[in-house]
Amino acid sequence: MAIPMRFATPIKCYTSPTIFNSTNDHHHALDASYIQRAAELSDKSACFTAPHPNFGCVIATTTTSGKVFGEGYLYAEGAKPAEVQAVEAAGEYCRGATAYVNMEPGDCHGDYTAVSALIKAGISRVVIGMRHPLQHLRGKAIHTLKNEGLQVDVLGEDIRSGSIEDALKACRVVNAPLLYRSASQVPFSVLKYAMTLDGKIAASSGHASWISSKKSRSRVFELRGRSDAVIVGGNTVRKDNPRLTPRHGGGHLPTRIVMSQTLDLPEVANLWDVREVPTIVATQRGARRSFQKLLASKGVEVVEFDILNPKDVVNYLFDRGYLSILWECGGTLSASAISSGVIHKVHAFVAPKIIGGKNAPSPVGELGMVEMTQALELNDVSYEQIERDMLISGYLQPIPDMRPVIPSVDETSAIDPSLSPYDSPIIFFYKTWDSYGSFSNFSHHPIRLPDENGHYVTWSSVEHYYQAHKFVGSSNPDARSYVEAIHSAKSPEEAAIMGRKLQREHPDMVRGDWESVKTEVMYKALKCKFSIYPHLNSMLLSTAGCVLVEASPHDLFWGGGRDGEGLNYLGRLLMKLRSEFLGDDDTYYAEVSAGYRES
């Protein structure tokens, strides 16, 4: 994916041809057009920033002949903020200019990088498309900017003219996954299917290639590329043997997920090839243990549920930090997902073909409805012709509009469980956007440490350092190129993907003592991080008396696991480091570690 474009010279802005009746109407329409542009920019990072929001920033003037001086968007989790990119692009033109952001800046790490960039650059006014939906970030940037003397206007609050509705909608749509996650505690789930004009997704024989046109299938690849995961049922694996890859040339590859109660699945399938893209099989506890071992030997992750159903699966994916899920399943599973209330949006590709067949499958199975008045209606429906096909899209559940109500403290825990008005003996952390997200290895806090030759090297994050050191000191001289590649990774997420993939595919390149030294490597990086950033040190020390748990549901070494079965080594190392900073002895660390295991 390309790095955000920077403008060396001013360019003309995007203006509306509307005739204005007043100066205010004109300025508000211009504000709206710039906010829409910020939303368009932010959309370029769809799924690359997950689980963070998509951020875009435009720096411009609001005179009659408005001009854009700088633009930027958040490339990936842990990368340079959109506001910083835009400020760097605009340079001296920032003084007295207006910054437009589709969403309130949400610095998760306590250093307020994005907000500070706007203040230091001399921006005089900031227009915000929508407040941040996460309660521990909502309103903080606005308050800081106002305290520094900047004028801050929020669409729908300070700017209310009729010309802003399209801009407001654009802001909500581009971050719809985050809004659903914040409001409903589930990932944004989209059901996609292709059917004939008479409502069939396959012939009576099961043959389904191809219902839709080549361009429609390309659109499906784009949908996959904008999703964190793609879900299918066992029947789809048996009949279609899909790959479920985007095949669009982009850098994001969603996780493939198969839901199968009985694991009646083929031993050979495209989805079992996990060299490029991971696959998770969700099944019922105890199903075909021998087949589970076979999948594990191929590198496929198997997750067991007491009772396999869409609701529990999406709850699990929520815990893993996924924002967007694409369902490409058959009628039985899609009906179950709709009945469970987890489907938010539908994309239906309708081809001008008739195939008939009494037993030919339809896209949605039995929902138990007996009257047309019970039919579910889509909201905000759109229609698009793609060659000879028609794409019909709409929402089963409207995008949450969080403008009218800012929850009180008592309501906070109902919207974001990580927050509570009461003190808790256990502090959970996982993704960098959480209240204690700075404890994550993926937080954007560069560290500087000496290499094996004593030369100091700057690493973009703890994750960069950790992943690269799997290959530092390897007996294979070619491993050095791996270290350099990980060091240059554009984000912690990319560093992690690269390091794990190289370790899996080239175990001969990994240093021979890695398993015995990896916790030591991690501790050295953590100690550097929490030593050089005062606000992080203060945050860690403020947790004294609390058990720290990395709430990863799938990493049973560094994280706590789904049900506390994980070893939680990241939390343990942070507690050990905290004790060292506090001057405590090992007794305190042993006590809190034991406390977590017992809980």
From TrEMBL:
InterPro entries, alphabetized: CMP_dCMP_dom (IPR002125), Cytidine_deaminase-like (IPR016193), DHFR-like_dom_sf (IPR024072), Eubact_RibD (IPR004794), NADAR (IPR012816), RibD_C (IPR011549), RibDG_C (IPR002734), Riboflavin_Biosynth_HTPR (IPR050765)
Molecular function (Gene Ontology), one example: hydrolase activity, hydrolyzing N-glycosyl compounds
Keywords: Glycosidase, Hydrolase, Multifunctional enzyme, NADP, Oxidoreductase
Domain CMP/dCMP-type deaminase residue range list: 29-153
CDD domains recorded: NADAR (cd15457), Riboflavin_deaminase-reductase (cd01284)
Alphabetical list of Pfam families matching this protein: dCMP_cyt_deam_1, NADAR, RibD_C
Reactions that this protein is recorded to catalyse: 5-amino-6-(5-phospho-D-ribosylamino)uracil + H2O = 5,6-diaminouracil + D-ribose 5-phosphate; 2,5-diamino-6-hydroxy-4-(5-phosphoribosylamino)-pyrimidine + H2O = 2,5,6-triamino-4-hydroxypyrimidine + D-ribose 5-phosphate
Assigned EC number: 1.1.1.193
The UniProt record lists the keyword Glycosyltransferase: no
GO biological process: carbohydrate derivative metabolic process; riboflavin biosynthetic process
Pathway the protein acts in: Cofactor biosynthesis; riboflavin biosynthesis; 5-amino-6-(D-ribitylamino)uracil from GTP: step 3/4
Name of the molecule in the record: 5-amino-6-(5-phosphoribosylamino)uracil reductase
Organism in which the protein naturally occurs: Helianthus annuus
